[in-house]
Amino acid sequence: MTKFLLPLALFVLLAVVLGIGIRHSPDKGIIASPLLGKPAPAFALPNLTDPSREVRSADLKGHWYLFNVWGTWCGGCREEHEMLLQVRRAGVVPIIGLDWKDDDAQALSWLTQLGNPYQSVATDHSGRQAIEWGVYGAPETFLVNPQGIVVYKHVGALTPDTWTREILPRVSGMLTGSS
Amino acid sequence: MARCARAVLITACLALATARAAWGVDPTELPDPVLQARYLSLTHELRCMQCQNESLADSPVGLAADLRREVRDQLLAGKSDEQIREWMSARYGDFILFRPRYSLRNAWLWGAPVALLVIGALVCWRVVRTRTTLLPGDHEPLEEDGQSG
Q1: A177 has pLDDT over 50
Q2: Which position among A151, A154, A159, B38 has the lowest Cβ density within 10 Å, counted as fewest Cβ atoms?
Q3: A37-175: which CATH architecture?
Q4: In the prediction, which pLDDT does B100 show?
Q5: Whole domain around residue B45: which residue ranges?
Q6: Which B positions 51-110 lie with beta carbon below 8 A of chain A?
């Protein structure tokens, strides 16, 4: 009896370990951000629509905001644009854009043609700011709380589902006083 | 004819392969050979986050180039290899390190081979010991085998 019990136990153990491995493996290439629960990177960057002012993280303290990394070269960004416009219309949380490794003129015409969902758009020609946020592919969206802590990150085009399930509850939970 | 075509094809493939090696993805050269060596080893052990099975050194995508530039700038600024690894994993997580670090979370990763070796040794020892005690009884069948064979 024990002759079979030991291999069986080993098999179950191995199956459990591998099962955990499969469940925790990067889902569709999505990697958990080490930024979650940590302060959002500080920035003071050129403003795409208003060259006279910078977009500064210091000015955003005390408010919830979405930090959306995009570029006119990015297909998923076009896909999620309508959703971003809806978020803007909902008026619950402002979106700060980071125009990542993009051409200013193209970005401006994109916003004119498709509509501008952003409160302000910072430009990141060198890609340095995106690295600070651990961005590895646009679009990526971060939710930052009034204390300046990153509480949620979404990789890929923003969907109505992500908005209602992940972002809205976090923001409105804060509004009603609970965490 | 077919052999000739195959030879041409193989030659072409080999030529392309060496051409790629000669060109490389990354033309960066640092002024100091020691820094250059550290640069090469770091870019080979950091993952390109965009095309996840390539290292920074091997990847032609834009983000890899940006991260290589970071490595170069930080080396020139006098940062240590460990500081650079730390900087990278603070932004992209331990996933960016091809060579996993020792931590409580991945202790099993480092411990598993040792544990498996010990288990294997125990199994071996048990099997050998049972076989050894059986030997006197095995004597006759063994002789039979010899006769029939």
Answers
A1: no
A2: A159
A3: 3-Layer(aba) Sandwich (3.40)
A4: 79
A5: 28-100
A6: 52, 62-63, 66-67, 70, 89-93, 95
